[in-house]
Amino acid sequence: MIRSPLTFYVVPMESLHAGEICEWEYNPPYNIYGWMSWEQMQALGVEFGDPQLRSEQYVSVVDGQGILCGFAQLFPMEGVVRLGVGMRPDLCGNGMGQPFMKAIVQAALARYPEREIDLEVLTWNQRAIRAYQKSGFTITDTYERRTPTGNKPFYCMVYEK
């Protein structure tokens, strides 16, 4: 087990990080959070496979030794920055969610100080929901959204500064 508390730092996402993220394998039911291969993402120019989108919206989360621990998407919308986050699978469930989210929220506040911060999470993902709540997020809405496996219920959670 990896010890917490751990200090995390947000840095620009390098292509090496992106390739590593594509290799992460999550255990069910979290395996829905996996990505296609790095080669496919680059060929299709999707998400962090698009160099411009990667530099504008994606960041890597590293530890004090510069080891990749996760990533975040800071997706700007009207008056809001929506977070998409992913933690390296072997770190999940070890009580590091709060310091991990703190680093991401600080990066979002620095980049978009005038915007509200929110995120979406599947309602069954109680592990993530607990980490987000401990990090200052509150459930503000519930709705269904299309996923690759059909419509699923999501919570919208907003960061309370």
Task: Characterise this structure.
With 161 residues, the chain is an alpha+beta fold. The protein has helices at residues 15-23, 38-44, 51-57, 97-111, 126-134; strands at residues 9-12, 58-62, 68-77, 80-87, 116-122, 137-147, 150-159. A seven-stranded mixed beta sheet has the order 1-2-3-4-5-7-6, sandwiched between helices. Strand 2 (58-62) and strand 3 (68-77) form a beta hairpin. It is globular, with a radius of gyration of 15 Å. The model has no long low-confidence stretch (mean pLDDT 94).
- Widest sheet, order of strands: 1-2-3-4-5-7-6
Order of helices and strands: EHHHEEEHEHEE
Biggest sheet character: 7 strands, mixed
Supply the helix-strand structural class.
alpha+beta
Distance between the termini: 31 Å
In round numbers, the mean pLDDT is 94
Residue fraction in strands: 25-35%
- How many β-strands, per DSSP? 7
Rough shape? Answer: globular
Can you give the helix content as a percent range? 25-40%
Radius of gyration: 15 Å
| Number of contiguous helices | 5
Low-confidence stretches: none
What is the strand and helix layout of this fold?
Blueprint: E1 9-12, H1 15-23, H2 38-44, H3 51-57, E2 58-62, E3 68-77, E4 80-87, H4 97-111, E5 116-122, H5 126-134, E6 137-147, E7 150-159
Parallel strand pairs: 4-5
Antiparallel strand pairs: 1-2, 2-3, 3-4, 5-7, 6-7
